[in-house]
Known about the structure:
Number of helices: 6
Radius of gyration: 33 Å
Order of helices and strands: HHHHHH
Strand content: under 5%
Oligomer: single chain
Largest sheet: none
Number of strands: 0
Shape: elongated
Distance between the termini: 82 Å
Amino acid sequence: xxxxxxxxxxxxxxxxxxELNQFLKLPILIEHYNEHHKLNPEMSLLAFFxxxxxxxxxxxDYTTDxxxxxxxxxxxxxxxxxxxxxxxxxxxxxFKFVNVNHIPVFDEDFYIKGHLHSIWQPxxxx
Length: 126
């Protein structure tokens, strides 16, 4: 049972977030090919694909042509909203104000000058 639920959830995720949802339009492709094949029995599948994918034209069945798989690519857009009743509380944590007038200098925060002067000395001979 867990295996089937996992497969179902993975399938739903992939169909909704990738272009795999285009494969759900395959019945429309088959039906549209059958319509074209009834009008012109000599039309091959390759000719059908060239007509609809290589050089698409605005003809009488343009709305159906736009519903074929991989003609229009869908994009995923996620929208996150915050509830109007959302409250962000700090609790009883003390808040430290930053002194805006003092900008720390590189010398003060990252190294002590005395150590660097003692490291970079030329070799001494006794």
